[in-house]
Design brief:
homodimer, 362 residues, Cytidine Deaminase, domain 2, Dihydrofolate Reductase, subunit A, eight-stranded mixed beta sheet, five-stranded mixed beta sheet, 14 strands
């Protein structure tokens, strides 16, 4: 079944609505919807503003009122068929009398999907896949999480040019420049969870809050997750009331990610030390690596990356570089270089975990 | 004293002549010269083609013949006042009846300089300093060498993202991508000397020849210098007849550079292992650092940089980044990143050596 130029144009508009800046982050995908009258003119627009608020289709239907009858709904994600905090969009579209639905990305969520089928059964014309790649790009992490059943993991580390994270006496403030530290806070804010090990909490006592350029904490903070068997001393900064904190009493990365996924977490920013990173890396649970290289030589001191048990060059972990960004230093600070990379196959890497049945759109 | 628009235009042309591509590299500076008639029209042009061939002024005078009388010589470097393989340009300009000389860079060579003074004494109008910065840029390494009395040292090393140059079993072929290795050959060709230690010759047995993209050796090869007290086994590849080789029987970087400078060497490409690099680094004898970062993790194995005796982060060697270049990999190879840097003050760094009286323009 084909689509009209008006529908394609409406889909581009719906994609822009989905990507509206400032929409609160949460476990739900970003979705936009445009309702078109039979003559191709726009009846109403809508988009989703985060968990608990109406889905894009319902938002648009509410604005359209009776004018939705006979309209075509152009929506960036297949309408859901699931009752979470809100009812199924498929039923809302049927109740409003929509006669045709054009969607982009098929719902990857095993629980919520099936809206297209439901609508077709009820006699509505349904076309899927229009600009689907662009729609997936809007919800890259959500798509990853619902299809693989675990959060996407970004491992961040800072290193000197010679692979050190601290000097021989343990001093490490600061290997990274101020520009690199600010950039790290920007990346933290794009995730919903920061994860460290109990050892990092013990030794470094980080606050793990996300701060803006003025060093003020943001209003919305990611979850602080600490993993490991050791008890946390009650005076640790990660236990203050500036953000929510969860202690995951496991050393197994799969278990930790499953626990976070059960809490609707989709994007983990792994900031622990080399040992924690090694556990995720060797388990094949690192999806992205962000490295800040400081143009500094120490010659000795703590290694930025732990012994991975790699004996020969052929077993090295190769990373695909997707971005290189130069972060100029000001006030005489070092220029740092940020590399963003994707791991290739890792020795000992396990297969993908089974998708979880946890509902993703609530 | 001021210069005319015709003289400024002629100087820009002389700078272009000085930088003529394909001129053989050698110990001499690149120089261009334009002779202007009193009405500002060009009488003749010349440039220097390498040691043993006429200097730029003499080249231009020969082309001008009798028309040089009363002309203005616009030249990118102060005319020399020294008899090497060719006679002093100051005398040649006087003999030709040139009435005015405009030069850019003052001759930094303690032996050859004084041409401007000699010409003034003989009644010629002399103006120096026009576009001097651009002229220095044409001969950056030469200017460094003649003013500091030693060759400029570029230290190159390749490293994994975690600071390793080889895996735990010693295997290191290849940490760098093919693109990075080709780029290294390009940089080698810009130097006049490659320097390694006897240990590298013993262990790695490198040919130390410069090869082109087809892996063929170039016609003109830099000097191969090996430093250290140990004798070289006669079957070592560095001793073959594909290029000249010198064995510097010293462990002292100052001594090694003095010996190379005495051989008219101006740009050393330091490719030895971490121990040799440390000796130069701690002696303050590294002027440029070129690092190829391979997006690869080993977790263990030989460190790319030796223990520098740095105990605390405040003593780290900071490098100023002047360039970051991404070298994309093809055929599934890693993308490498090249950082070009200048060392800041180094702990234990010694003061600059005394300029040597060795003649530089021969």
């Amino acid at each position: 079944m084909t689509t009209s130029e008006a529908e394609r144009s409406a889909m581009r508009r719906a994609l822009a609505l989905a990507a509206t800046p400032g929409v609160p982050l949460g476990p739900n995908p970003r979705v936009g919807c445009v309702l078109l009258a039979p003559d191709g003119t726009t009846v109403a627009e809508g988009f989703h503003r985060g968990a608990g608020s109406p889905h894009a289709e319902v938002d648009a239907l509410a604005r359209a009122g009776a004018a939705a009858r006979g309209a075509t709904a152009v929506v960036t994600l297949e309408p859901c068929n699931h009752t979470g905090r809100t009812g199924p969009c498929s039923e809302a579209l049927l109740a409003a009398g929509v006669s045709r639905v054009v969607f982009a990305q098929a719902d990857a969520n095993p629980v919520a999907r099936g809206g297209g089928h439901r609508l077709r059964q009820a006699g509505v014309e349904v076309v899927g896949g229009l600009l689907a790649d662009q729609a997936r790009a809007v919800n890259e992490v959500w798509t990853f999480a619902v299809t693989s059943g675990r959060p996407f993991v970004t491992w961040k580390f800072a290193t000197t040019l010679d692979g050190r994270s601290a000097a021989a006496d343990g001093t490490s403030r600061w290997v990274s420049s101020r520009a690199a530290r600010l950039d790290t806070h920007r990346l933290r804010a794009l995730c919903d969870t920061m994860l460290v090990g109990t050892n990092t909490v013990e030794v470094d006592d980080p606050a793990l809050t996300v701060r803006d350029e003025a060093d003020e904490p943001l209003d919305v903070q990611p979850l602080r997750a600490v993993m490991g068997l050791r008890d946390l001393a009650p005076d640790r900064r990660v236990l203050d009331d500036r953000a929510e904190t969860v202690h995951l009493r496991t050393r197994d990365p799969h278990e930790a990610l499953a626990a976070l996924f059960a809490r609707d977490r989709q994007h983990v920013f792994l900031e622990g030390g080399p040992t924690l990173a090694r556990a995720f890396l060797t388990a094949g649970l690192v999806d992205e690596v962000v490295t800040y290289v400081a143009p500094m030589l120490l010659g000795a001191g703590a290694s930025a990356v732990a012994d991975l048990g790699i004996g020969t060059i052929a077993d090295a972990v190769h990373l695909d570089v997707s971005d290189v960004t130069v972060l100029p230093g000001d006030d005489g600070e070092d220029t740092n270089v940020r590399l963003t990379m994707t791991p290739g196959p890792t020795p000992g890497r396990t297969s993908s975990p089974t998708p979880s049945p946890t509902p993703r759109r609530t």
